[in-house]
Amino acid sequence: MTDQIKQAMSGQEITALLTEAARQELGRITLQQDMGPELSDDEIDSRIECLEQDSLNLKRRARRNDFTAVAQPLRAAAGALGIMLPATIPSDLGRRAADLIRELKDVEAKALDGEDARSAASPLVGRFSTLPVDTFLSTQPVLLSETWARALKRYPTKSMKGNIDAIAKVAIEFFGNVPVATITKQKQEEFFAWMARLPKTQGRSHGKNRFTEKARREGRPVKERKQLTKQDEIDTADAEDEAVTEAIRARTDICNLEKRALLVEKLKPRLTMTTLRRNRDGLNRLFKAAADLGCPEAPSAISYKEVERAIQAAAPDDPLYIRVTKPKLRMPWTEERLAQFLTCPIYTGCASVHRRWKPGPLIVRDAFYWVPLILLTAGTRIEEILLLKRNSLRLRNQVHCLALGFTSEARGKTNDAERIIPIPQLLLDLGFVEWIKSLDDTHGPLLFPEIARRTETGKVTVAFGKALTRTLGHLELADFDEDLYAARKTLSSMLRSAKVGDGQRQALGHTRHEGSRPRCAR
């Protein structure tokens, strides 16, 4: 857990520590009885006498709040569970631990005196578990890292893997690799209040990209960057925001409302509530995975409202405090912006393949030419288009169509993604069909191989989006909300404005009906 959250140990943590300490000590006692060396009566009597004296000493020390004698088994249990134990044993934990160790010494004495260790331990184990003694001894608490692995099996899709990996890494950095049962509601509230301080750009300063990965594979030197923790990123953003806030606070020529208006433009944007809700859902998936693994007291994630209240409660009492976020609204493209884009050098003539923003005599018909037009006229998902093959062109009832999502490597996001759509008239007029037919085997199987070759991870949408955004930036057409992904929404909004409702979502591939059949959208 981070240094900011050092509070009294929760009841769940104390129970987990005592349970693990009991498991370890009973495991030692039963193993000693089963496989230990034979002892003489005098040796047994001497050891029993020592155990009784140790038990008496524990009781006397507890009167003075001296729990040093129980520190070793508690620290061994804490190490196994990944729980940070304070340097000084808290009295509520120490007293319960002293009672437990005295009981364990009594069980050990009975085992030495000839009683069955498991029978003698049964009442003690019953306080921690309903399992038989042997099962209790062999059962380990479910750790966060184990729920991570289990969640990936519960949700095996590629898109879910990224979400699960992201929340698991952040959770383990904050909580540590602790038993899931120790993550209380209060700790979840602290977790989300801490997470809300993460800058929007968190996780992007690692310096890893397709160029550095290629260099490593080829054995070329790569300049390594210091890998920042999430707490490092929070501290850096907080320090920068504090400097900006104090500079504006010192101004005497404007009121607080004006100061806040300036701060909104200068403070570091933090994670949006949408992202925090998504992470809350991810945490709940980890908890469900813990239940799958047999965790008897697997928690449930706190609600969205509780997440919001926790963030509000953690806000400082400062009239200038603002938690700035920068949510993406994904607005449909305006008519003015569409007109500017469709008359830019990409379509009217550019200087070269690498300078699409500069006017010139060259028109390059590739992904940067066709994909935006397909998005604007057909409303498909970007990845669907980027993974189209040369043989995706079909002729049905004398209508040229595109087959989307039918092949195994290009499965869509929903069941309804498998569909055949007619090619819009604009694309026909621009020669899209003739362009596809002109491609030979040297072009490769994909319609747009130049995008696939830009990525080592297979994330074609990211590769295309970054490249096109750079070009739009040169054209002064880049917009945070009206981005490439919003081009699909543009068609949807136009259809809605024109009151085209029947079959609209089916044509765009948005619906999710179980067992739906592939269809032809006409």
Automatic annotation (TrEMBL):
Residues 202-237, 502-522 are annotated as: Disordered. Keywords: DNA recombination. InterPro entries: DNA_brk_join_enz (IPR011010), Integrase-like_cat_sf (IPR013762). GO terms for biological process: DNA integration; DNA recombination. Residues 210-233, 511-522 have a biased composition (Basic and acidic residues). GO terms for molecular function: DNA binding. This is Integrase. It comes from Leisingera caerulea.
